[in-house]
Structure formats: C-alpha cells, structure tokens
Amino acid sequence: MQALVIAHRGASGSRPEHTLESYRLAIEQGADFIEPDLVSTRDGVLVARHENALALLRPDGSLQEATTDVAERPGFAARCCKKSVDGQPRIGWFTEDFTWAELQTLRARERLPALRGTAFDDVFRIPSLDDILALLAEANACRPGCPVGLYPETKHPSHFRKLGLPLEPPLLRALQRRGAAPVFIQSFEVQNLRRLRELTDLPLVQLMELDGQPWDFATAGDPRRYADLLTPAALADVARYAQAVGVQAEMLIPRRGDGRLDVPTPLAAHAHTAGLQVHAWTFRAENQFLPAEYRRGTDPAAHGDVRGYLDAHLDAGLDGFFTDHPAQGRAAVAARR
C-alpha cells in the first residue's frame, strides 16, 4: 500500500494555513487527505485553526504570533485576555470568545512570515468545518473513485468540554451530514478518542510527541507520558480504540547531536505488530526544519532535500505522513511506486 500524503493544515508551505485556498491547493497538488485542526466558537461552530488562539501577545504586550489580523481590529481590542490553555498561560484573543459571525470578519495571516513571506496575508478568511466539507464535496465530485479524505484533529478537547463546548458531537454531526469522503479523526488526548470510539466506527488516530503527556492524563493525575504509550503492551491497548498512531518524526528516526539522522527506533515495528498504522509529522521543505544532511545551502528559508528525508522515513515503515508541501510529498511517494 502506498503511503498516505496528508496535507498538514493544507498546502501550508505555500498559502496561510487552515484556509480554503490552502486546502484547495493541497488537493490540486495530490494530497490524499487534508488536515484541519478544529476549535470552537462561542456559539459552537467548529472552525479551522491550529490553536484556539487567533493572536498571542508576550507579557510586555508585543505581538508574539498571529494567524489572523484580530490584533489590529480596534473593535475587538477588549477581547484580549489572559487564560490557561492545557496548563499553559496565554495572553491574546481566542476563538471561544467570538461568535462565528464575528470570526468571519477576520482575515488569515501566515504563521511563519520570516520563512514564507506575507504575500497572502489578510486575503483569506477563516473557514468553518462545513465550509471545508463543502470544498471536499466539490473537489470529489470531479474525482470519482479517488476521493480526497478529511483528517481532522480535535484541538484542546478537555479545554472546550470544560467550557461547555465539546468538540465531538458537532464534528460527528457534520461528518454524518456530508458523508462519503474517507476520514481519520486524531487527537493528542486519550479520553476523547475513547469517547469517540463509543460514538463512531470511523478510524481514530492517537497523536504522540517526544515530550510531555496527554493533557487529560495530567488533569486526572495519571503520570504516564507519551513515551509510556510506545511499549508493545501500551500500543496493544491503543489499538483497542485507535487504528493508527500519529507520531513526531523524531520518534521514528531520532536526530544525533550533529543534527543528522540516527538509526530508526523499533516504534514502527511495534505499532504494526499491534495492528496500528504509523503516520508521522511534520515534513517541511525548508532547511530550518530538515536534518543536516538534507539541507541545501545556508538560507534557512531555502528548500532542501525533503524527498530524501521522506524516503528515510518511508524505509523505516511509515504508512502516512503530514507535510506542509503536498506536491513534494506526492512526488516522493510516486518515485517509489
């Protein structure tokens, strides 16, 4: 089976992430799945943002990061607030403090302007899940027998559940309305995936990263960390509710002290033995994100050999990968066919 090309926040290496234009370009570039991260508005509409933060400020009041123009909207200045999200203090503007109608007045911005420029800032709006499903339906009507799928992530599910805005019910309702396209649902938490397993037969993906622990473990006083979920016995337990693990690429092939790739870990073999697919994140073409041997030149924004980097992971047993550059991901898969 060919590895799945999962467009990470769309073709986010070429357009501002989580915009319809980013997803549309990813489909044109050959992605098998587009990946929207889902958060909620105050009135319960699911929208695509990597985080619930629309813009963040540093403690001194300077702008730290912005994926929208909300910080420049005087009418929303009073919405700036301090809050804790998954145990992390934040100062900024957050989706749960806005209605869907208000969010539609904002425009998206590039998350990594130093690397990717600002040519498309303030051009595209924030899409809802229904907008994304409509785009997929339109695209798939022209692709009989080869539909592009949806790979949504429920972001901060415990946070939104505590606010009375659980993500699971509206997600499943929307998918049931639209149907047809292939779907994986992913999360860094565990209990919301277990909850989803009771509600749907759709494939689920347990996300994991090198450090830290699932936030629902932390709030429950469970000391286990993501590393503890990687043993053969723990992966067998994950397989009781999920069909795949979505892991940080360095968990499959660590990097040495000199920035080059080390030898692969047994993670893929253990996951496959448990009956789990292995999907890895995130493959970006810019030198800044690549191991030393795959960089080309010294400009951090220049593109290196991301196809070679992908090949190393495909050789290590990867079943799918998240990439900001779907065209290069598709080329890497096609070259192995």
Brief synopsis:
By secondary structure, this protein is of the alpha/beta class. 29% of the residues lie in helices and 19% in strands. The model has no long low-confidence stretch (mean pLDDT 97).
Protein architecture, described:
With 337 residues, this protein is an alpha/beta fold. 29% of the residues lie in helices and 19% in strands. The chain has 13 helices and 15 strands. It has helices at residues 20-28, 100-103, 113-116, 129-140, 157-162, 168-178, 191-199, 215-220, 232-238, 249-252, 267-273, 306-315, 326-335; strands spanning 4-8, 33-35, 37-40, 46-48, 53-57, 63-66, 81-85, 88-94, 149-150, 153-154, 185-187, 204-208, 244-248, 277-283, 320-323. An eight-stranded parallel beta sheet has the order 9-2-1-15-14-13-12-11. Strands 6-5-8-7 form a four-stranded antiparallel beta sheet, with no helix packed on it. A three-stranded mixed beta sheet has the order 4-3-10, with helices on one face. A hairpin with a 2-residue loop joins strand 7 and strand 8 (88-94). It is globular and about 55 Å long.
Quick tags:
alpha/beta, eight-stranded parallel β-sheet, 13 helices, four-stranded antiparallel β-sheet, 337 residues
Secondary structure blueprint with pairings:
Layout: E1 4-8, H1 20-28, E2 33-35, E3 37-40, E4 46-48, E5 53-57, E6 63-66, E7 81-85, E8 88-94, H2 100-103, H3 113-116, H4 129-140, E9 149-150, E10 153-154, H5 157-162, H6 168-178, E11 185-187, H7 191-199, E12 204-208, H8 215-220, H9 232-238, E13 244-248, H10 249-252, H11 267-273, E14 277-283, H12 306-315, E15 320-323, H13 326-335
Parallel strand pairs: 1-2, 1-15, 2-9, 3-10, 11-12, 12-13, 13-14, 14-15
Antiparallel strand pairs: 3-4, 5-6, 5-8, 7-8
